[in-house]
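Worked example 2:
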Amino acid sequence: MNKLLISIVLTTGFLLSGCVTQSESAQMILKDETKETIRKKIKEGKTTQNQIRETFGKPTSTTFDGGMEIWSYDYFSQELDVTSALIPYVSLFNYKTRADLHQKGLIIFFNNNSKKTVNRYTFYESNSQLNDKTRVGR
């Protein structure tokens, strides 16, 4: 039973160690963006919808509210590290997992005018880490 559990943990570790999840390459556009880089690229009342599309590509989602068109761009990645489960002898009965979660989002509200200029925008960023130490077998 312990050998089966250890081999499952090891196999999972090899498959998931350092794995980054991203559903679409277009969403990767926000990966290296910060509030400062976004501020340089978007000027409220001046930057047009066409310029936004040229800079950031196709939005993740498009909605309408009160006559305004709203574009959203999302970036999410998760890195799972179970390498401590792969160290012989040290982790025969204990293993640790860690998941690093990174999320960024850009929401842009466009004026309902002929040029479709940016009315306002919001950029947010969130980083979190989940840790777990599990004891296998007693």
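The chain has one domain: 2-135. The longest helix spans residues 2-16.
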